[in-house]
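User: Predict structure, ligand (2R)-3-sulfolactic acid.
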Amino acid sequence: MKSIDVCLSPELMHLYDVKDRTVVVVDILRATSCMVTAFAHGVESITPFSDLTACQSMKSKGYITSGERDGKKVDGFDRGNSPFEYMGEDIKEKKIAFTTTNGTQAIEKALGAKKIVIGSFLNLSSVVKYLLFGENSVLIICAGWKGKVNLEDTLFAGAIMEKLRNHIEADCDAPLIAQHLYNLAKDDMMKFLSNSSHVKRLNRLGIQKDIEFCLTPDQYSIVPVLDGTGKLTIK
Ligand code: 3SL
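Assistant: Predicted complex:
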């Protein structure tokens, strides 16, 4: 039977060997939710960057540049990190260079995995199917916040665990913790997360509607996958 593990913070990645695993990177609020939304609206590719300058330099190569730090759009970038910025006709068939505080850093930590895919509640069932029919064991990397654990990414890991529970074995207790939390939260995730650190942070920025949207399951049926050249596509 395949197995599943959950890395609750990118700082714990040294504990995991990913070379034979499919890694799901998740940053519910909001990086991976934005990426999934962008692909659902016709973006050709997204190249993730951990570094702001490297990301911004892609502008001269014809990329849309997306830059977020501490929840805010970075000056000089074309877009920030709200899913509602990735729903227009103007992003169709475009290439995006993307950098965020935690999400794109977590993707970098996953390099070396057999496969790297992007997860969010918006494409939850598609990710579940992808993992179910794939041959590899799984690691979910929760992007967290600057090395610290967060609730919303853990809930997503729990949702995956809950849906795959009859098909996959937990490697350690992190998937079980996530699953328990998800089962407590699933009927009203907004309420469950109301005291969470990043929801409070985003509420201070006045982006309540982003939070509600990012917690809505199954809006899109796609799974972005990182290719050998470092870009995400949905081929
Ligand atoms: O950390 C990240 O990658 C972002 O998703 C954070 S924020 O939601 O834009 O604040």
